[in-house]
Amino acid sequence: MNFLYAQAPAGGQPSLLASLLPLIILFAIFYFLVILPQQRQAKKHKQMVEELKKGDKIITTGGIIAEVVKNEPDFLKVRINDSVEVKLDKSAVARKLNDEKA
């Protein structure tokens, strides 16, 4: 165990700020590169889902293309074909189809 003490600096232990600074910098980089963009994307997606109206075409996370019939508080009522209407959880909406792409 004495070999561990042989590498300690002569001035004693480094200050608390010097030992925590690399962790703080890593957290800041992680926040700005990962967490903040993900929060922005989630906010944008939630707004898009809330603004869906009757007649909008959507793609679900399962890849099903459907047309919105009614936007309810927790669910969407969507039409898959002429005779099939289902309730879809809002979290299952992947994106809205634009008319130019369809």
Class based on secondary structure composition and strand pairing: alpha+beta
What level of helicity do the residues show?
Answer: 25-40%
Instruction: Round the mean pLDDT to the nearest integer and report it.
Output: 87
Distance between the termini: 70 Å
For the sheet with most strands, the description reads: 5 strands, antiparallel
Q: Total number of β-strand segments?
A: 5
Gyration radius from CA atoms, angstroms: 26 Å
**What's the helix-strand series?**
HHEEEEE
Numbering strands along the chain, what is their spatial order in the largest sheet?
4-3-2-1-5
| Percentage of β-strand residues | 25-35%
Number of helices: 2
Low-confidence residue ranges: none
Gist of the model:
The protein is α+β, with helices and mostly antiparallel strands. It has helices spanning 2-5, 16-50; strands at residues 57-60, 65-71, 75-81, 84-89, 93-96.
List the helices and strands and how they pair.
Blueprint lengths: L1 H4 L10 H35 L6 E4 L4 E7 L3 E7 L2 E6 L3 E4 L6
Antiparallel strand pairs: 1-2, 1-5, 2-3, 3-4
